C-alpha cells in the first residue's frame, strides 16, 4: 500500500514550468539569432513566436501552484526526462546545415509540375521589389536567367512548367555539386536544399547540368554554373538541362536553403 504524503512544495508544478519556459526560451532565442532557418521554413516564424508566448503563459499558470500544498503520491521525476533530455540537447547541440557527408542518403527532388511546355503558363515579366508575387519575381536580367537565393524556387518552377519557352536562354546558378548513381562523368546537379515545411522534409533540388570537365569537381563542392538551357528526355520525361559553358568554385551562400513559399 502506497502512503500519500503532504508536500509543501508542488514539485510537479516546478518541473512543468521549467520545461515550458525552457522550450519557450529556446524558440525565442532561435528566432532572435535567426537559427530557426535550420529547422523550419521562415514563413512559420510567427507561429513560433505565438507558441513561445503560449508556453510562457501556461508556465505562469503552473507557477502559481508551486507553494500550494498537494496531498498525493510522490512524483516520479524520471517521467520528466523525456522532456528534459531533448531540451538539453537543443541548447547544447548547435544548429547547422546538413553535413555534406550525408548527401548520399538523399534522393533528388522530383518536380510535380514537369511538362513539355505545350500548355505554357503565362508569366508576368514585370518585376516589383515591393511585392512577393511569384509571377512578378520571375524575370530575365538582360536576357539571362539568374537563379539566386530569392529567385531559385521561382525559376525552378517556371523552367519545369514552361520548358520550351527558355530553350537557348543563358542561365546562371550557384549550388552544391550533387550526383546520383546513374549520372555519367559529365553530369551533376548544381543543387540547393529545398525546405518546404521543416528540416525533416528537406531535399536537394535543381537542374541536371552537363559539363565535360564535371569530374574535376567534388560532391558537395559549391560551384557557379553558367550555361544554356536545353531540353532532354531523362527517365522517360522531358526536362530542362543546363549545358554548361563554365563551372567554377564559389563560396557557399549565408543560407544554403531555399523555400518554396
Question: Brief overview, please?
Answer:
With 261 residues, the chain is α/β, with parallel strands linked by helices. It has helices at 11-33, 45-63, 81-92, 152-161; strands spanning 5-7, 70-72, 144-147, 170-178, 187-194, 203-205, 208-210, 222-234, 237-249, 257-258. A five-stranded mixed beta barrel has the order 4-5-7-9-8. Strands 1-2 form a two-stranded antiparallel ribbon.
Descriptive overview:
It is a single chain. The chain has helices at 11-33, 45-63, 81-92, 152-161; strands spanning 5-7, 70-72, 144-147, 170-178, 187-194, 203-205, 208-210, 222-234, 237-249, 257-258. The strands form two sheets. A five-stranded mixed beta barrel has the order 4-5-7-9-8. The protein is built from four helices and ten strands; from the N terminus they run βααβαβαβββββββ. The chain is 25% helix and 23% strand. A hairpin with an 8-residue loop joins strand 4 and strand 5 (187-194). It has two domains: 5-92, no CATH class; 100-258, Beta Barrel (OB fold (Dihydrolipoamide Acetyltransferase, E2P)), CATH 2.40.50.140. The N and C termini lie far apart (59 Å). The longest helix has 23 residues, at 11-33. Helix 1 packs parallel to helix 3. With 261 residues, it is α/β, with parallel strands linked by helices. The radius of gyration is 25 Å and the shape is elongated. The model is unreliable at 116-136 (pLDDT under 50).
Amino acid at each position: 500500500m502506497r502512503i500519500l504524503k503532504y508536500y509543501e512544495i508542488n514539485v510537479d508544478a516546478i518541473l512543468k514550468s521549467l520545461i515550458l519556459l525552457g522550450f519557450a526560451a529556446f524558440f525565442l532565442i532561435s528566432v532572435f539569432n535567426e537559427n530557426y532557418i535550420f529547422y523550419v521554413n521562415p514563413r512559420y516564424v510567427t507561429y513560433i513566436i505565438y507558441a513561445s508566448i503560449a508556453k510562457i503563459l501556461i508556465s505562469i499558470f503552473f507557477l502559481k501552484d508551486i507553494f500550494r500544498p498537494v496531498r498525493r503520491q510522490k512524483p516520479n521525476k524520471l517521467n520528466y526526462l523525456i522532456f528534459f533530455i531533448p531540451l538539453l540537447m537543443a541548447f547544447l547541440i548547435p544548429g547547422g546545415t546538413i553535413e555534406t557527408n550525408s548527401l548520399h542518403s538523399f534522393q533528388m527532388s522530383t518536380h510535380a509540375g514537369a511538362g513539355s511546355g505545350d500548355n505554357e503558363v503565362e508569366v508576368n515579366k514585370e518585376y516589383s521589389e515591393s511585392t512577393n508575387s511569384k509571377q512578378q519575381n520571375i524575370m530575365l536580367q538582360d536576357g539571362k536567367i539568374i537563379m539566386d537565393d530569392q529567385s531559385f524556387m521561382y525559376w525552378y518552377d517556371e523552367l519545369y512548367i514552361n520548358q520550351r519557352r527558355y530553350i537557348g536562354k543563358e542561365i546562371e546558378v550557384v549550388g552544391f555539386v550533387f550526383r546520383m548513381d546513374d549520372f555519367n562523368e559529365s553530369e551533376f546537379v548544381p543543387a540547393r536544399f529545398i525546405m518546404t515545411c521543416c528540416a525533416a522534409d528537406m531535399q536537394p533540388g535543381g537542374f541536371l547540368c552537363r559539363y565535360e570537365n564535371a569530374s574535376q569537381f567534388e560532391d558537395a563542392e559549391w560551384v557557379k554554373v553558367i550555361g544554356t538551357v536545353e531540353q532532354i528526355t531523362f527517365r522517360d520525361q522531358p526536362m530542362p538541362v543546363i549545358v554548361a559553358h563554365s563551372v567554377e568554385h564559389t563560396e557557399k551562400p549565408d543560407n544554403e536553403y531555399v523555400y518554396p513559399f
